[in-house]
């Protein structure tokens, strides 16, 4: 059984990045995947800043180290990923993600910051030795219908990424 862990870098529950993670996980064959969603907002900020110990942080790090695939999901803040996701990945030593595939997922208000996933989030996990999936997902407001459901375009992006992840981890 393959292990997939999703890291949520949004400080807010129900974010667009969280919705995309859930849509992604729902498409995986359940009998082949052990999945978990790690909400970084549940971790003490003191622990994320190396000032204290935290059981949730320790368990999250262990889960990532045991994972085959990692979804790194974050909203766009100041043209890049959140500090929450940055401080989490700062916990890992060099090459800690070697042999793992990471799918960056980033959301924003418009297409203007679409390249931030290629200039920020993807290189950040590469510095830890991860292989970055080629079908990254950058989504903005136009990818969502008025009723909050994903557009056909977003559904297609997610489907492409799922196919790639299943193909690379098989």
Can you describe what's shown?
The radius of gyration is 15 Å and the shape is globular. The protein is built from 6 helices and 6 strands. The chain has one domain (2-168): Flavodoxin domain (Rossmann fold). Strand 1 (2-8), helix 1 (16-26) and strand 2 (33-39) form a beta-alpha-beta unit. With 170 residues, it is of the alpha/beta class.
Number of helices: 6
| Helical coverage, percent range | 25-40%
Integer-rounded radius of gyration: 15 Å
Q: From N to C, what is the helix and strand string?
A: EHEHHEHEHEEH
Catalogue the unreliable spans.
Answer: none
CATH domain class: Alpha Beta
Structural class: alpha/beta
Query: What is the 3D form?
Result: globular
Residue-averaged pLDDT, rounded?
Answer: 96
Q: How many structurally independent domains?
A: 1
> Which band does the percent of strand residues land in?
15-25%
Q: CA-to-CA gap between the ends?
A: 10 Å
CATH architecture: 3-Layer(aba) Sandwich
Describe the sheet with the most strands. Answer: 6 strands, parallel
CATH topology call: Rossmann fold
Write out the CATH superfamily name: Flavodoxin domain
How many strand units? 6
Q: What is this entry, summarized?
A:
By secondary structure, this protein is α/β, with parallel strands linked by helices. The protein contains 6 helices and 6 strands; from the N terminus they run βαβααβαβαββα.
Core attributes:
globular, 170 residues
Write the SSE topology.
Elements: E1 2-8, H1 16-26, E2 33-39, H2 45-48, H3 55-66, E3 69-75, H4 83-89, E4 101-107, H5 116-126, E5 131-132, E6 137-139, H6 152-168
Parallel strand pairs: 1-2, 1-3, 3-4, 4-5, 4-6
